[in-house]
Amino acid sequence: MKRIFLVLTASMVLWGCNTTSSTTQVTAKKEVQVAINLTDIKDDKVMVTVNAPTILTNEITYHIPKTVPGTYSEDNYGRYIDDLKAYDQKGNLLDVKKLDDNSWSISKATTLSKITYLVNDTFDTEKGTQFGQDDIFSPAGSNIDAGKNILLNTHCFVGYFTNFMTIPYQVTVSHPADMWGATSMTDTDESTTLDVFTTERYAELVENPIMYSKPDHTSFTVDGMEINIAVYSPTGKVTAESITPEMKTMMTAQKHFLGKINATKKYSVLLYLSTMTDTDAKGFGALEHPTATTVVLPEIMPKEELVKSMMDVVSHEFFHIVTPLTIHSKEIQYFDYNNPKMSEHLWMYEGVTEYFANLFQINQGLISEEDFYGRLSDQIAHANAMNDTMSFTTMSKNVLVEPYKAQYINVYQKGSLIGMCIDLIIREKSNGERGILDLMHKLSTEYGVSKPFNDEDLFAKITSLTYPEVGEFLKKYVAGTTPIPYGEFLSKVGVKQSSEKVAGNVFLKGQTPYITVNPETKEIMVLPEIELNPFFTALDLKGGDIIVAINDKPYSLENIYDMIGESQKWKEDDAITVKIKRGDKTQTLTGKVKFPYEDKETLTVTDPSKSELKNAWLKN
Predict the structure, then answer these.
(1) 3.40.50.1110, 2.60.40.3650, 1.10.10.10, 3.30.450.20: which CATH number matches 2-319?
(2) What CATH number was assigned to the domain covering residues 505-595?
(3) pLDDT per residue over 528-579, tens digit each?
(4) What is the pLDDT of residue 68?
(5) Element containing residue 425 per DSSP (H, E)
(6) DSSP secondary structure string, 532-555?
(7) Tens of pLDDT along 421-472?
(8) Residue with the larger pLDDT of the pair 457 and 502
């Protein structure tokens, strides 16, 4: 999963199964049949009918997931289910008892024929993480906009019966003829209004999202992998064709970087663009699957910013085909959707994935060394702002609860830097011949899609495949509580870590914004109850002020990116006028631009004698 934190909103996977089985399941009907009706949507609710397998117990429980792989949060998708009913073979209602947000117990289960229920979409209820922590991360959620778009993350619509997760699922989706379902699954029905998908087990279904909308998609092939790009843009501003050249360049480079780690034959990128209105998505980023990525971004982004964000999140999600989709622990292989046990190794699942998302770009010539070092510098600064003495394995194992949950975002910062340090150790010990990608090749051969490892055995296995120094690093800095001396590891390739004062973003400090947008009025407001930086205080801007115009140019939700772009061209002491609304009065404030100055980590090459090892690190 990759979240994107955007100023304008102040918002800031794997597959598994429960292998528990019983002799009753072996003799049971061998398929769960699901019908999803997208042709008759009422009140933004979709009717789902589930034909049950043969059940030989008096009671059975139907579950909607509490958590799904890749989200690292307890989201309780069952709270979006209404009016669940159970029927016997004669059409009589059976007693149903709701056990919790996500579970329903059904009596006289031996006579159970089917259950029905209505599904609400999650986008309608999102407020953004600034306002509440109960939001579903948009790429893991659902949208129901009849006749326009259905973002059908299958775990939002389809559940499972206890002990029946490993039998096949057949899902039939009825939909308007002018709506097309983008997915990596194969539709076995040739009609234009019915799609039929079959998976071998529930976990496979969960990992296959579908996005229904008017067709807007492209496809291309890279080294035997078919890649599909599907886009839903409410106004038609963005098309699949308009972003495909950049996606093809990036994903071709990723495939070449990965080499032999590749078992996926078809991969889909589903891009949903939000209007940012009150009932639309506000959690931006992406969620990975073995053969797909769901991406949610705001439609108002300028194309160059949109493409940049797509490259950021899609490159990260695509590299998840290495870990945890190929290399993973038993906690992930046998994922429990309603009582999840988390793995210790988020440093690898998310951290190494993020490291690869940057490393491949310098390796394949998509960015410069300066850009690469700048990204590492930013990660060091952000990691240092987190709890640097918390054991990373302990945090990972307990990421669903506080205080560890609050540190999750560090998987993209310190987790990536852990990958960098391991890479540098291996490069040094092997005289530049091998790095962390070689380690991941070996781990994928040792384990693979269907062979998980034991959490507690991974460090020893990595040490046996590399060097004792790697094992010592993992024990001291990943399992241990010692902060990582990044400069010590970077010096191996002649790179020096230092710090300097630089002008910061006037509207953003780290990932904390100073402004937000009212989606109803589309007005830009200075956040109340926040300590403002010198840009605001020098102009006497106050929390709650509405920014109407800057230097006589009006701004609102529609062109907030223009405002942010213009601010990056400002210079210290430039004259500036800001028109605001404060309460019932409109006034114009005048003054000079004052930047907030921050200590920024910098990386520079200072030891040319290490250039051979440095080049092996970046180019091999």
Answers:
(1) 2.60.40.3650
(2) 2.30.42.10
(3) 988 999 999 999 999 999 999 999 999 998 899 889 889 989 999 999 999 9
(4) 95
(5) helix 414-429
(6) --HHHHHTT--TT-EEEEETTEE-
(7) 999 999 999 999 999 999 999 999 999 888 999 999 999 999 999 999 999 9
(8) 457
Residues 463, 442 contacting (CB under 8 angstroms): no
- What span, in angstroms and rounded, lies between the C-alpha atoms of 353 and 88? 48
CB atoms within 10 A of CB 134: 12
Question: Do residues 397 and 72 make contact, with C-beta atoms less than 8 angstroms apart?
Answer: no
Q: 283 — phi, psi (to 5°)?
A: -100, 105
Question: In whole angstroms, what is the distance from residue 548 CA to residue 533 CA?
Answer: 19
Q: Are 32 and 161 in contact (CB under 8 A)?
A: yes
Cα(620)–Cα(93) distance, integer angstroms = 65
What separation in angstroms does the CA of 181 have from each of 121, 177, 193, 203? 17, 11, 10, 20
Kindly report the number of other CB atoms within 10 A of residue 230's CB atom.
Answer: 24
Q: What is the pTM of this model?
A: 0.87
As given in the structure block, the two tokens for residue 612 are: 């051979």
Provide the residue ranges of all domains of the chain, joining segments of one domain with +. Answer: 2-319, 342-497+607-619, 505-595
Indicate if the alpha-carbon torsion angle 358, 364, 365, 370 is positive or negative. Answer: positive
- Angle of the 414-429 helix axis to the 436-446 helix axis, nearest 10: 100
pLDDT at 130: 41
> Taking CA 515 as the corner, what is the angle to CA 308 and CA 552, rounded to the nearest 5 degrees?
90
Answer whether residue 3 shows pLDDT above 60.
yes
